[in-house]
Amino acid sequence: MNIADRIQYLRKQNGYSQEELADKVGVSRQAVSKWESEQSTPDLEKVIIMSELFEVTTDYILKGIEPVSTTNRKTIRTLYVGFALIFAIIAGIWSFAANRFNYDEIILITLAGGVVGFGIALIVQVIGGMISNKKQ
């Protein structure tokens, strides 16, 4: 897919006619038609405007580097919420345990909690790295 195809694809995905896109970008309908038929290419200023309008990167419009999909963002957000809930549950258990055990046992529970927390942070880092590598 070349730049002309990407502009046309994005325009149609967002439900714009050539005239509507032209109005939003500040050019004539004929200019958009020429971009989409490979008779000309938009200048950098227009590419930036379209990237903001379509909520994609300029790299996607110019080179075809895929944008981060909202599905990936939602997945990452869900993972963070899930880990936050797990952390909250573990913190609640530790709090309950602190009220039931003596000082020496509380120190051991706290140390165990630190190890578990470090483990969770490591898992989040690894998963984030894997997702990041898939995007590239």
Short characterization:
With about 140 residues, the chain is mainly alpha-helical.
Q: What profile does the largest beta sheet have? A: none
User: How many helices in DSSP terms?
Assistant: 7
Low-confidence stretches: none
| N-C termini distance | 18 Å
Rg from Cα: 25 Å
Helix content: over 70%
Quaternary: single chain
Total beta strand runs: 0
Order of helices and strands: HHHHHHH
Give the helix/strand class: mainly alpha
- Beta content: under 5%
Pfam family, one: HTH_3
Domain HTH cro/C1-type: 7-61
Transmembrane segments: 79-97, 109-131
Keywords: DNA-binding, Membrane, Transmembrane, Transmembrane helix
Provide a descriptive summary of the structure in words:
With 136 residues, this protein is mainly α. The protein has two domains: 3-63, lambda repressor-like DNA-binding domains (434 Repressor (Amino-terminal Domain)); 70-135. Helix content is 79%, strand content 0%. The protein has helices at 3-13, 18-25, 29-36, 44-54, 58-63, 70-100, 103-135. α2 crosses α3 (29-36) and α6 (70-100) packs antiparallel against α7. The mean pLDDT is 82. Residues 7-61 form the HTH cro/C1-type domain. GO terms for molecular function: DNA binding. The chain crosses the membrane at residues 79-97, 109-131. This is HTH cro/C1-type domain-containing protein.
